[in-house]
Write a structure and sequence with these properties.
Distance between the termini of chain A: 42 Å
CATH architecture of the domain at 714-874 in chain B: Orthogonal Bundle
Radius of gyration of chain A: 16 Å
Number of helices of chain B: 29
CATH class of chain A: Alpha Beta
Strand content of chain A: 25-35%
CATH class of the domain at 714-874 in chain B: Mainly Alpha
Helix content of chain A: 10-25%
Distance between the termini of chain B: 83 Å
Strand order of the largest sheet of chain A: 1-3-4-2
Radius of gyration of chain B: 39 Å
Helix content of chain B: 40-55%
Number of strands of chain B: 32
Order of helices and strands of chain A: EHEEE
Structural class of chain A: alpha+beta
Largest sheet of chain A: 4 strands, mixed
CATH topology of chain A: Eukaryotic RPB6 RNA polymerase subunit
Shape of chain A: globular
Number of helices of chain A: 1
Largest interface: A-B, 14 and 14 residues
Number of strands of chain A: 4
Oligomer: heterodimer
Number of domains of chain A: 1
Largest sheet of chain B: 6 strands, mixed, barrel
Shape of chain B: extended
Chain lengths: ~80, ~950
């Protein structure tokens, strides 16, 4: 059986996939301070989310997502990594 | 102790939910007892107080005593604050304890018509006849809340409403030892897991976790405690349990449930102090008090009993029969049959809408309304009586237009104005004024209906009481007078999807029987006059009136929060009128003044002193003198090299110092949802001035039409011969082209589009050709028609219609499509039996070549009717769907809010968006979502 090896799908390389970055401790602190919030009040992202597999993020980290927006061009969105 | 508590609480409730589960207050038992003692102490104290006060001052007036009672009532409310509610199940013991009568006979009344002792209408269960006193509590009708009774059931009966809980319990516990099917060592783990989930994610998640655990236990088939094998348990709906194809009787079920230890119940989310599972199998049944199932005396003197009483009669009768048969030692089959019958009656007593059971019916055949039907669904107690509030001081009728009303007015028929009223408090300055209203009474128009004394007693004004009311009237009294011009009212049209769907209007009392509104406010209400009805509410307090006037008046709602343009603007006639006026109208100065005066303008100083004034000058006269505006009319082509004032279409609208220098005023300046001039007026002069100017412009448009005439005639659709020929040619060419395409398709020479079959390609190509032909016909019509015809004026000004509509009338209706395809349904391989099979020509597939004026051929008409009905169906089906979709959306987002830091957060302050709309723009301050920077710069410099 000469089946060709299936190319692995990498979510990160898809055109519709916005850029995900892990925030440094310093940036995370200033972000939380800016909005006067704690981690729980941020929108969540699962640690098992395919988009952040490569980042190795753990619960408690904050992910920055750079999205394209029809109204504002490009915007930053932040999500707190959660386990469940 | 818990039982005692239950009893007390249930007695207080008039209707226990589902007849079985009742609410009990306070979780920690000790606390409750203390509180109850306190409460009873307090009531006794209060009673003694009342008595003593009566003794001391017997000569005190009635009013003073009422006042005192009111204060006491108030204090009582404070002392009984509900801290928590516990839901539980009544045990047989509690049922017996709280019952004040044992019911033993299904008979209701004896020969004299007196309730039978031990019958279902026993007077110990409460009074429903005026004059009688309750045997249990001694109070009269309306004072006695009613008391429960009970029946001893001959055999245990399963309660339908707990069937799922029972099934879960049976499946998840050992059939021999009654323990949960969880090994001892893991039991604690499960428990702590539940507690942790509750702490972290709340009660709702705990409940979910409980059901997760339950579903994981169902598959275990060996008891980890005693090692006994578990049998497969199924339920035969509605109320029979089967194990290995053998029926297990409610007695057996009950004994199994009894075996489940208290500490295991927590896993199931059951609190054993309030619920023991075996209580879900009834051995004793509570009989609801007569007060919740009163009988009605018919006109003929006959008594008609409530549905519940009928059902209870069946239960008691069958129960008695069962008792007798058991005692007489009847054969097992007869007893089983009666038992099943009793089960059926009790099941339908709780719920008469169970799928597997035929509903119990009246003799007339209509199903009985039993307990569940009373509570649930739209007509049930909760949605109808508790959540569904009704209002007084409101009116509803058909609406009709009245352009002579102010925009923020509503015309109210006199009949309504004399029914609705406004309370006005008497003071030393208005006594005489209000006395006149009372003098006129309820029959003569600006009169009054009621007088309210300071103690709250309401007295109707009639011919007889008029004199007395006049005499006693003094400051502090309240007169409920008729509605008058200038009173405030809330005006609303459903569906209220908007905040603009309910606005505050000033009342104008008018003759007639309809509510009148200015056609300019139709748009925000989405109203028309094809039979629409609207509601009117009259605020009754000073606070409500102030709030309505400041927050809800029409002018405050001018700018839509959704896109920042005015929702109120000129419509229909007034747009056409202003278009004609500002296009090239010239009238004598005298006529101009006449028109302006009738519009409400009284300052003619800005009108040039010429014999003949232009329409633009008339229009300028209603604008403020320092107003500047630049815009484009609808016809503007957005040329790159804009010629500004010298535009040949006169599409460059320029207002300088209150003078319309150039441009035609149309929908894009004045229309609702698009009027940029209205927006600028609002920004510069505020809502009140804008509404005034808008009113004048609106009336000016109508004035123009009434003076110069406006109609749409059949002759508007006439075409010159040249045009007819041109269109004929276009059609012929298109027809030929289609024929070529079909021909090549049949010869299999047609080149198909990538990813499409040849037949699909053909369809697409034909559609394209025909659409092009229709558009060409439209262009020819637009080119050759009379530019000054009224139909064209309407289309050009944006008042109504478009050039396509005109082309459909005068030249060609075009292709009729269903689901984006040409019509291909009907008979096999053809649309109508008058065509050949497989005919793909335009006319056989729904192309309407003729225009409406010339008339349609029969088959063309048929195709038109097909799409017409299809679209009618579509709208009728889509409206409720999209309405529900919107409702869900609105409910899901109702407490999202933009905080001061620009983030969008929900009720628990969690972030939804970091910047509102991702760009942080307030759309209500924009022009349809964008900000016109050029305009701002121009305004600043």
């Amino acid at each position: 059986m000469a089946r060709r090896k299936k190319k692995k799908f990498i979510a990160k390389k898809h055109t519709l996939m916005p850029k995900h970055v892990k925030l440094s401790e310093k940036d995370k602190k200033s972000l939380l301070e800016k909005y006067h919030i704690n981690l729980k009040e941020l929108p969540k992202i699962l640690a098992t989310d395919p988009a952040i597999q490569a980042l190795g993020a753990k619960s408690g980290d904050v992910i920055k997502i750079v999205r394209h927006s029809p109204t504002a061009g490009e915007i930053n969105f932040y999500r707190g990594v959660a386990n469940e | 102790m818990a039982e005692k508590k239950q009893k007390k609480k249930t007695e207080e409730k008039k209707e226990p939910e589902k007849g079985k589960a009742s609410e009990k207050a306070e979780t920690p038992a000790e606390e409750t007892r203390e509180e109850q003692e306190e409460a009873s102490k307090e009531t006794s104290k209060k009673e003694s107080e009342k008595e003593s006060s009566e003794e001391k001052k017997p000569e005190k007036t009635e009013e003073a005593e009422k006042e005192k009672e009111r204060i006491e009532d108030y204090e009582q409310v404070i002392s009984k604050k509900v801290r928590s509610l516990v839901f539980g199940v009544l045990s047989p013991k509690i049922i017996k304890k709280m019952a004040s009568a044992k019911i033993v006979t299904p008979e209701l009344y004896d020969k004299e018509g007196y309730p039978v002792d031990g019958g279902l209408m026993d007077i110990r269960l409460g009074v429903i006849d005026p004059g009688l006193k309750c045997k249990s509590c001694g109070s009269k009708l309306k004072e006695c809340p009613g008391h429960f009774g009970y029946v001893e059931l001959a055999r245990p009966i399963v309660h339908v409403k707990f069937i799922n809980v029972i099934l879960n319990l049976l499946r998840c516990t050992c059939r021999e030892c009654g323990r949960v099917l969880i090994p001892k060592n893991r039991f604690e783990k499960y428990k702590s897991q539940l507690d942790r989930v509750e702490k972290e994610l709340g009660l709702e998640m705990r409940r979910k976790k409980v059901s997760d655990i339950i579903s994981s236990l169902k598959t275990i088939n060996k008891c980890p405690h005693c090692g006994k094998k578990q049998q497969k348990l199924v339920i035969e709906k509605p109320t029979t349990f089967m194990e290995n194809e053998k029926r297990i009787s409610p007695i057996e079920v009950r004994s199994r449930l009894e075996k489940i230890p208290d500490e295991d119940l927590e896993i199931f989310g059951i609190n054993p102090t309030h619920v023991r599972p075996e209580w879900m199998i009834l051995t004793v049944m509570a009989i609801p008090p007569v007060t919740m199932r009163p009988s009605i005396t018919l006109e003929s003197g006959e008594r008609s009993e409530d549905d519940l009483t009928h059902k209870l009669g069946d239960i008691v009768r069958i129960n008695q029969r069962l008792f007798e048969n058991i005692n007489a030692g009847a054969p097992e089959i007869i007893i089983e049959d009666l038992w099943d019958l009793l089960q059926y009656h009790i099941t339908t007593f709780f719920d008469n809408n169970i799928a597997q059971l035929p509903p119990a019916r009246h003799r007339s055949g209509q199903p009985l309304k039993t307990i569940t039907e009373r509570i649930k669904s739209k007509e049930g107690r909760i949605r109808h009586n508790l959540a569904g509030k009704r209002t007084n001081f409101s009116a509803r009728t058909v609406i009709s237009p009245d352009p002579m009303l102010r925009i923020n007015e509503v015309g109210v028929p006199k009949i309504i104005a004399m029914k609705l009223s406004v309370p006005e408090r008497v003071n030393q300055w208005n006594t005489e004024y209000l006395k006149k209203f009372i003098e006129r009474g309820p029959e003569e128009y600006p009169g009054a209906n009621y007088v309210i004394r300071p103690d709250g007693k309401k007295k109707k004004i009639t011919e007889e009481t008029k004199e007395a009311s006049l005499e006693e009237l003094q400051p502090g009294y309240i007169v409920e007078r008729h509605l008058m011009d200038g009173d405030v009212a809330l005006f609303n049209r459903q569906p209220s999807l908007h905040r603009m769907s309910m606005m505050c209007h000033k009342i104008r009392v008018l003759p007639g029987r309809t509510l009148r509104l200015n056609p300019a406010v139709c748009f925000p209400y989405n109203a028309d006059f094809d039979g629409d009805e609207m509601n009117l509410h009259i605020p009754q307090t000073e606070e409500a009136r102030a709030e309505a006037e400041i927050l809800m008046q029409v002018q405050t709602q001018l700018i839509s929060p959704r896109y920042g343009l005015s929702v109120i603007g000129c419509v229909q006639d007034s747009i056409s009128g202003n278009y004609i006026l500002t296009k090239d109208l010239k009238v004598s100065r005298k006529k101009a003044m006449e028109m302006l005066y009738s519009v409400g303008a009284d300052d003619f100083s800005s009108l040039p002193r010429k014999e003949e004034v232009s329409g633009k000058e008339i229009f300028s006269a209603v604008l403020p003198e320092d107003f500047n505006f630049i815009g484009h009319s609808k016809l503007c082509q957005r040329c790159i090299d804009c010629k500004r004032e010298k535009c040949e279409r006169d599409a460059y609208v320029k207002v300088e110092k209150g003078k319309l220098v150039s441009g035609i005023i149309d929908k894009s300046s004045l229309g609702s949802e698009s009027g940029l001039m209205l927006r600028d007026l609002h920004v510069k002069y505020g809502p009140d001035v804008t509404i005034k100017i808008l009113e004048r412009i609106f009336k000016l448009g109508i004035e123009v039409l009434t003076n110069f005439g406006f109609t749409t005639a059949i002759s508007d659709t006439d075409l010159p011969n040249v045009a007819e020929q041109k269109i004929e040619e276009v059609m012929k060419k298109a027809r030929e082209e289609v024929d070529v395409l079909i021909d090549s398709f049949h010869k299999k020479e047609l080149e198909s589009f990538p990813g499409k079959t040849a037949a699909e390609t053909l369809e697409l190509r034909i559609l394209e050709v025909l659409n092009r032909a229709r558009n060409q016909a439209g262009l020819i019509v637009a080119e050759h028609c009379d530019k000054d015809s009224h139909t064209i004026i309407m289309a050009d000004s944006g008042a109504r219609g478009n050039p396509l509509n005109l082309a459909q009338m005068s030249a060609c209706v075009g292709q009729q499509a269903m689901r984006g395809k040409r019509i291909d349904k009907g008979y096999s391989e053809r649309t109508l039996s008058s065509f050949k099979k497989g005919d793909l020509s335009p006319e056989a597939r729904g192309f309407i070549r003729d225009g409406f004026k010339k008339g349609l051929t029969p088959y063309e008409f048929f195709f038109g009717a097909m799409t017409g009905r299809d679209s009618l169906m579509d709208t009728a089906l889509r409206t409720p769907k999209s309405g529900y979709l919107y409702r869900r959306l609105a409910n899901a987002m109702q407490d999202l809010k933009v905080e001061y830091d620009g983030t969008v957060r929900d009720a628990s302050k969690r972030i939804i968006q970091f910047e509102y709309g991702e760009d942080g723009m307030d759309v209500s301050k924009s022009e349809k979502g964008t900000i016109n920077i050029k305009r701002i710069i121009k305004r600043v410099t």
